[in-house]
Amino acid sequence: MARLGVLLFLVQIVLAVCALISCLSAEEGKIRGLPRIAWVLIILFFPLVGSIAWFIVGREPSSGASKGWPGGTSSPERQRPRPVAPDDDPEFLRSVQDRAKQQDQELFRRWEEDLRRREDDLRRRICTSPVSLRNALISPSSLSR
Predict the structure, then answer these.
(1) pTM beyond 0.85
(2) What is the rounded average pLDDT of the residues 81-95?
(3) 82 pLDDT band (50/70/90 cuts)?
(4) What is the pLDDT of the chain when averaged over all its residues?
């Protein structure tokens, strides 16, 4: 008999905790009859009766379409588009790619200009240098090294 009393006491506590969680997490428009604070006090002072009253009278009955956990994806507030993080936003990623492409093209253009300038400097030096230097640069012995 004592075991049954302990079991019923535990069921009452679990029911009261579930009712408190449901009451505290319910939206203001979904609470019927009394204000939230009144429901919390009723559930705390009369756990068995208050919990049953909360589930029957206090909360708005859920529609058949939104079964499941309150935080699930079936609630209407979850169907609103959420703000997208920058690394998930395709427009942001496209802008980053475009910016990187422009920077790469600018760097490539500068490298090409620098290479052309160096080649022109080298050509001018070879053309204006004495013949012996020009021959030394182009000699077959320098090519075999």
Answers:
(1) no
(2) 77
(3) low
(4) 80
Residue found by looking up tokens 């997490």 in the block: 25
Give kind and range of the element (H or E) at residue 139. none
- Which tokens in the block code for residue 121? 């400097």
Asked if 55 contacts 19 with a C-beta cutoff of 8 angstroms, the reply is yes
Half-sphere exposure of 88 (CA within 13 A, CB side): 4
Structure tokens at 66: 């939104």
Q: Encoding tokens for residue 28? A: 């203001």
Q: Which two three-digit tokens encode residue 44?
A: 């705390």
Q: Using the Cα atoms of residue 80, residue 82, residue 83 and residue 88 in order, give the sign of their dihedral.
A: negative
* Structure token digits, residue 140: 């077959």
Place of tokens 């013949």: 131
**Look-up of token digits 């979904």:** 30
